[in-house]
Amino acid sequence: MVDSTRITHVILMKIQINTGQNIDGRATMSRHAEWVVENSLSHLAEQVTRVESHGSDENNKKGGTGDKRCVLAARFKHHQPIAVTTDAGSAHGTSNP
Q1: What is the DSSP letter of 75?
Q2: How many structural domains comprise the chain?
């Protein structure tokens, strides 16, 4: 039996997650950040071509509040990229919308 379903177009939104070596739980953090980006921007998937996330610990292992940083850069078709930065006390906190 042949499946007669046709795909009329494919929506590709590339998501790249980067974290510093000093971020605890990097693999878990990357999966969470990817999930947040996919779910937050799914309604714009036809316009967004790429999203990059850069997570870092600004104080390394020294600790402190608000020392985790996440920079998100989104690239849109036919528009200039947009970047935002957020700081939080935990790496997980920086990726929550």
Answers
A1: E
A2: 1
Beta-strand relationship, 48-57 and 14-19: parallel
Domain extent, residue 83, equals: 14-94
Burial of 88 (0-12, 13-18, 19+ CB in 10 A): middle
Strand order in the sheet with 82-88: 14-19, 48-57, 68-76, 82-88
Please indicate, yes or no, if residue 30 is contained in any of the structural domains: yes
Q: What is the pTM of this model?
A: 0.70
* Owner of token pair 């528009």: 79
Asked if residue 4 is part of any domain, the answer here is no
Q: Is residue 1 part of a domain?
A: no
CATH number at residue 64: 3.30.160.100
How far is residue 86's CA from residue 92's CA, in Å, rounded to a whole number? 11
Residue 36 has a pLDDT of 85
> What are the Cα distances from residue 52, in Å, to 9, 27, 37?
24, 16, 9
